[in-house]
Amino acid sequence: SGTMDKKSEDVRRYIAERCDLIGAVRLPNNAFKANAGTEVTADILFLQKRDRIITQDEPWLHLAETEDGISINGYFAEHPEYYGMVDGKRVGTSGLCQLCLSNPDVLEICTESIRKVMRENPDYMVYSMEQGDNWSYCTCPECNAIAEQYGGQSGLYLWFVNQVADAVKDEFPDKYVGTFAYRYTRHAPKGIVPRDNVVIRLCSIECCLNHKFDECDRNLPFVKDMQDWAAIAKNLYIWDYVTDFRHYMLPIPNFRMLQPKLQDFRAYNAIGVLEQGDYQTRSCELKDLRAYLVSK
Questions:
Q1: Within 10 Å of residue 45's Cβ, how many Cβ atoms?
Q2: In the chain, N or C terminus with fewer CB closer than 10 Å?
Q3: Average pLDDT score over residue span 104-111
Q4: What distance in Å separates the CA atoms of residue 291 and residue 296, rounded to the nearest whole number?
Q5: DSSP-assigned states of every residue in 21-62
Q6: Closest Cα to residue 209, out of 223, 199, 219?
Q7: What is the pLDDT of residues 16-73, one digit of tens each?
C-alpha cells in the first residue's frame, strides 16, 4: 500500500504513463503473517502494459479520504462497495477484508484479472480465485441471501467461482480455476456443485496431526467435509498440513500418520495433495526427513 497510498503521486504517475490499471485488490493485513511474521497492508495491482507512454489523469493517481477521515488511494475510497460488509460497514480499507462477491463489478474485475493471468502464464494448469486468510467475509444482504440459498459461505464462494470458470472455459478449455474450502468455507455447499473446470482445494488446518482421521474426534468433522466434497466435486485437491503452526518449534510426532492420511485422500478420489510443512525456520524438528517421507 506504500505505492497506492503514498502522499507523493510520482510512482503512480510513472506506472500510469506505461500501463492501464485493470483492477486492484487490497489484501488483508495478515496475508503475510505466516510467511514474514508481520502484519502489513498490501495491494495487488493488475496492470496491462502499453506499447507507448501516455500522459493522462486517472482517479487512482490521487488520494481521497474515507468516512473516518483516513487518507487512502482514491480507487479504494471511491469503490467501498467492492469490499465486504462487516457489522454493517464496508471494511475494504482496514486490511481485514474480503470482497463483496455479490457485486457484479467485482465479478467482472476478477474475471478479467484471471483471464489476463491465464494469457500471460499459459503453462499453468490451475489458476487461483480464493478467499483471504481472515474471517471478515461479506455480510451484506445480497451476499447473505446467496449464502443462505446455497448452504453457507462455501455456497456463496462457489457461486462466484463457477461464474468465473464459465467465463474463461471457452478460451481456456484445458485450464482450471481453483478455490479454497478453508475454515468458514470448508463445508460442502447445498444446491450447487463445482463446474468441471473448477478445482476445490480442501484444507485440513483444524485437524489433529498425530492421529488417523477416523480415530480422532477432532478429525471427524473434516472427514465429513471430505466425504461431502468428494460426492459433488469432480476435481478435489487436498491442502494438508504436516506441521503445527500453533506450536511451530515443538516436535511433531506425526511420522506414522503421513502415509495413512495420503491413503485416505486417495480413497476420496483426490486429484492432488499439497503437504504444507515448515518452510520458515532453519532448524524445525526433522523437517527434511518429513519432506522426504512425504515424497515417498
A1: 17
A2: C
A3: 93
A4: 9
A5: EEEEEEPPTTTTHHHHS-----EEEEEEE-SS------GGGS
A6: 219
A7: 888 887 767 666 555 555 555 566 667 777 787 888 888 877 777 777 766 666 677 6
Dmax over CA atoms of the chain, in Å, equals 65
| Per-residue pLDDT reduced to its tens digit, 215-229 | 999 999 999 999 999
User: Taken in order 18, 19, 25, 27, is the CA torsion positive or negative?
Assistant: negative
Distance separating alpha carbons of residues 242 and 244, to the nearest angstrom = 7
pTM of model > 0.85:
no
116 φ, ψ to 5°?
A: -65, -45
Which residues have a Cβ under 8 Å from the Cβ of 283 and sit 6 or more positions away?
A: none
Q: From CA 269, how far away is CA 296, in angstroms rounded?
A: 19
Cβ neighbors of 112 (< 8 A, separation 6 or more) are 22, 23, 46
196-234 residues labelled b (16+ CB within 10 A) or e (exposed): ebbbbbbbbeebbbebebeebeebeebbebbebbbeebe
Of 150, 162, 126, nearest in space to 237 by CA? 126
Averaged pLDDT, 145-165? 98
Which residue blocks in the chain are alpha helix, DSSP H?
Answer: 10-18, 33-36, 74-78, 104-120, 141-149, 153-168, 220-232, 258-267, 287-295
Query: Nine-digit cell at 56?
Result: 493522462
Who wins on pLDDT, 72 or 183?
183
Say how far residue 218 (Cα) sits from the centre of its chain. 25
The rounded radius of gyration (Å) of the Cα atoms in the chain is 21
End-to-end CA distance of the chain: 42
Query: The C-alpha cell of 171 is what?
Result: 478460451
* DSSP 8-state assignment for residue 127: E
Q: Are strands 63-65 and 71-73 parallel, antiparallel or unpaired?
A: antiparallel
